[in-house]
Every structure is written in structure tokens, then in C-alpha cells.
């Protein structure tokens, strides 16, 4: 048996006819940027999230960069201000902050759910703190009442990095609509994946939306009038037309992921393996990744590879230990560092069949 970590071809072939029709339609239309497909997808995405505005952009990193940049243009953030961010995240969350000359203040995760430990945020707030960037890592919701209380008490903005969690629901509200603005990624491997790069911002704030839209389009809301020193970060018509097909099926596909996660959580039983926390209650996670832990992670990964099961590590080196962030290399985040040595992501996707799930569970249960 050969089980890929993620079979993108199979995932996209689920909607072959509709995707091919839209590709051809867009190709033949002669209109490839800033047209009806993007508008239509933005409208449908906004409706899906429940947010007033969504703005299609070039990728997930740009979505986050643009939010922070727009707050700077509005005079709400200044150079040197601080944004609280989880130490255990993909580097894009941090790059979006440093690229704007703001300072990331890292907070350790909760070892059991790998998301930011909300109880440790308040100690890290200073005079310069302007926002909290919460990351719904692995498709698991990183938000609760305590976080909401902190935001109110200190009058902070909440920026969501929703790159891994489209479709997740907290208490009836979709992630991406819990805070002031949110960044989405449509990188091919994400739960809602394009056939290339893509991203979006969502917000309920009219002014912020308008500034982001302008900055993403050379700083211009009106042709040849440049209000900001902008960038070029646009979602193209072809990607938008494909994403619009896939958006219709996102709940269905996330449900498949939930079913697989449930089986893993029930049936993987091995004292050498720690399973992810599955506490649901008012939380509907979307299981972008199903991440187990083991103190013998590298041996486990090799063992699974020998059985034809491909796994990945998200992430082997935390942002503060990356070469590009030498200035943070003295920081100590023992929980984050422990996770980077122990985590292992199992195959999970809407096209992973029962037989493969069974095979993976059996392999894990016989690891010794
Ligand atoms: C994928 C990802 C991003 C960046 O998305 P791109 O589209 O690749 O730029 C940001 N944050 C997290 C948590 C991600 O997983």
C-alpha cells in the first residue's frame, strides 16, 4: 500500500467537470484580472463566512501583510508597535508582522492543543501592544471567551490567521469572522485550495476593506489615482472561478476530514503516541492537519514510510529559531521547541478512503 500525505490530483478531480468548465469559460472570456469571477467569488466567500467584505489577494501571506499595512495607513498601528503571535505557527504569521516593521511578541502554545495558550497572553501585553494575531493552527479554533475579554480590556485588534481553518465554527460564528480582520490562504494544499496561489482578507470594517483593496491594487481605488504606496496583490480570474466551485463543497469536504479525525482519535491506541486534543463543545474544528506526538517521532516517521505511509512535520523549526530571525535566537520557548521535535502529521483529506484509514491505524497500533 502507498498512501500519499495529500493526493491533490484526486482532490481536484472530485470536481473535474465543473472546474474544467470554469477554466474554459474564463479562458475564452478574454478577461483575466479584476473581473466578474473574482467579484462573484468574493461575494460568495463573504456570504459563507458571514463577513461584510472579502478581498481576493495573491496569497495568504499577503492577506496578513495587507491587514497590518492598512492599519498603519489608518494611523492605528505605528512602526515598533507589538503584535502578540503564537510561537508555534507557520512563519508567514510572523513575517506579516516584521515585514511591516512591527514587533512580534511570541506566546507559547498549550502543549495539548498546540494553539496559543490564551492564559499566557495577558502577561505579554505592554504599552506598545496593538493587536493579537490568533492562528487556528491545524484547523483547530484558537479563540475563547477569555481571549475576547482580553481584547476588550486592553482595546486590542484581533487579526485571525485563518489559512488552515476555513469552515471552522466557534459558537455559531465562522473563524474569519471572530475578530477585526482575517487572512485566508488558497495554497493548493489548504482545505480550500486553488490551482496555484491565492488568498483573501475578510472584515466587517468598511474603511479597512477599502484601504486593503486599494493597497493590494497599487494603492489605488480609482484608476491612475494612487493614494498609498501600494503593492500588486490580486487574486486572478482563473483561480477565483475554480475556488468558487470548490467553495460549494467545503463543508462536505471538511466533514469527511472530521470523520477521519474521529476514527483516528477513537482507534489509535499506542502508549508511544499522544493524540491531539479533540475537545469540541461549541467548537467545530476542520482538521486541516491531524497531528500526533511521539517522543520517538523520527523513528515512527521512518517506520510509517517503510509501510508506504507518507507523513509530514508541521513544523520542524519554529520561527524564532529560523536563520532569518537571528535576533530571536536567544529566546526560549520550551513547549514550542518540544512540539517541533515531537509532532507528526498523518494523512487526512476528503479523498482518503476507509481502507487507507484502517491501514494507517493498524500500522500506528503495531508500532513498538
Ligand atoms: C499557508 C499558511 C499561510 C500563508 O499562506 P500562503 O498562501 O502560502 O502565503 C499563513 N499562515 C498559515 C498558518 C498557513 O498555514
From TrEMBL:
Organism taxonomic ancestry: Bacteria, Pseudomonadati, Bacteroidota, Flavobacteriia, Flavobacteriales
Keyword vocabulary terms for this entry: Aminotransferase, Pyridoxal phosphate, Transferase
One GO molecular-function entry: transaminase activity
Protein name: DegT/DnrJ/EryC1/StrS family aminotransferase
InterPro entries named among the record's database cross-references: DegT/StrS_aminotransferase (IPR000653), PyrdxlP-dep_Trfase (IPR015424), PyrdxlP-dep_Trfase_major (IPR015421), PyrdxlP-dep_Trfase_small (IPR015422)
A Pfam entry, by short name: DegT_DnrJ_EryC1
Cross-referenced PANTHER family: 3-OXO-GLUCOSE-6-PHOSPHATE:GLUTAMATE AMINOTRANSFERASE, TRANSAMINASE
ATP-binding is among the record's keywords: no
Family to which this protein belongs: Belongs to the DegT/DnrJ/EryC1 family.
Record carries keyword Transferase: yes
Amino acid at each position: 500500500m502507498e498512501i500519499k500525505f495529500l493526493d491533490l490530483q484526486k482532490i481536484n478531480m472530485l470536481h473535474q467537470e465543473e472546474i474544467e468548465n470554469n477554466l474554459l469559460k474564463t479562458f475564452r472570456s478574454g478577461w483575466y484580472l479584476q473581473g466578474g469571477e473574482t467579484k462573484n467569488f468574493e461575494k460568495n466567500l463573504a456570504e459563507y463566512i458571514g463577513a461584510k467584505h472579502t478581498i481576493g489577494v495573491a496569497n495568504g501571506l499577503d492577506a496578513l501583510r495587507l491587514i497590518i499595512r492598512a492599519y498603519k495607513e489608518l494611523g492605528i498601528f505605528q512602526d515598533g508597535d507589538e503584535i502578540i503571535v503564537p510561537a508555534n505557527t507557520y512563519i508567514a504569521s510572523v513575517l506579516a508582522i516584521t515585514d511591516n516593521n512591527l514587533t512580534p511578541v511570541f506566546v507559547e502554545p498549550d502543549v495539548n492543543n498546540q494553539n496559543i495558550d490564551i492564559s499566557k497572553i495577558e502577561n505579554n501585553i505592554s504599552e506598545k501592544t496593538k493587536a493579537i494575531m490568533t492562528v487556528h493552527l491545524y484547523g483547530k479554533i484558537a479563540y475563547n471567551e477569555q481571549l475576547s475579554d482580553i481584547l476588550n480590556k486592553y482595546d486590542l485588534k484581533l487579526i485571525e490567521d485563518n489559512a488552515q481553518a476555513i469552515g471552522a465554527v466557534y459558537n455559531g460564528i465562522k473563524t474569519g469572522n471572530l475578530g477585526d480582520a482575517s487572512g485566508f490562504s488558497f495554497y493548493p494544499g489548504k482545505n480550500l485550495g486553488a490551482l496555484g496561489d491565492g488568498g483573501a482578507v475578510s472584515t466587517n470594517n468598511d474603511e479597512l476593506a477599502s484601504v486593503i483593496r486599494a493597497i493590494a491594487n497599487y494603492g489605488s481605488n480609482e484608476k491612475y489615482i494612487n493614494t498609498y504606496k501600494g503593492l500588486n496583490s490580486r487574486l486572478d480570474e482563473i483561480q477565483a472561478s475554480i475556488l468558487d466551485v470548490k467553495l460549494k463543497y467545503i463543508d462536505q469536504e471538511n466533514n469527511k476530514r472530521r470523520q477521519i479525525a474521529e476514527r483516528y482519535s477513537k482507534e489509535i491506541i499506542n502508549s508511544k503516541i499522544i493524540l491531539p486534543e479533540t475537545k469540541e463543545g461549541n467548537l467545530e474544528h476542520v482538521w486541516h492537519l491531524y497531528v500526533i506526538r511521539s517522543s520517538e517521532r523520527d523513528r515512527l516517521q521512518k517506520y510509517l514510510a517503510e509501510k508506504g505511509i507518507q507523513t509530514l512535520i508541521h513544523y520542524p523549526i519554529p520561527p524564532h529559531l529560523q536563520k532569518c530571525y537571528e535576533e530571536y535566537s536567544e529566546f526560549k520557548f520550551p513547549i514550542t521547541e518540544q512540539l517541533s521535535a515531537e509532532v507528526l502529521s498523518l494523512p487526512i483529506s476528503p479523498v482518503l478512503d476507509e481502507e487507507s484509514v484502517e491501514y494507517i491505524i493498524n500500522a500506528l497500533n503495531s508500532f513498538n
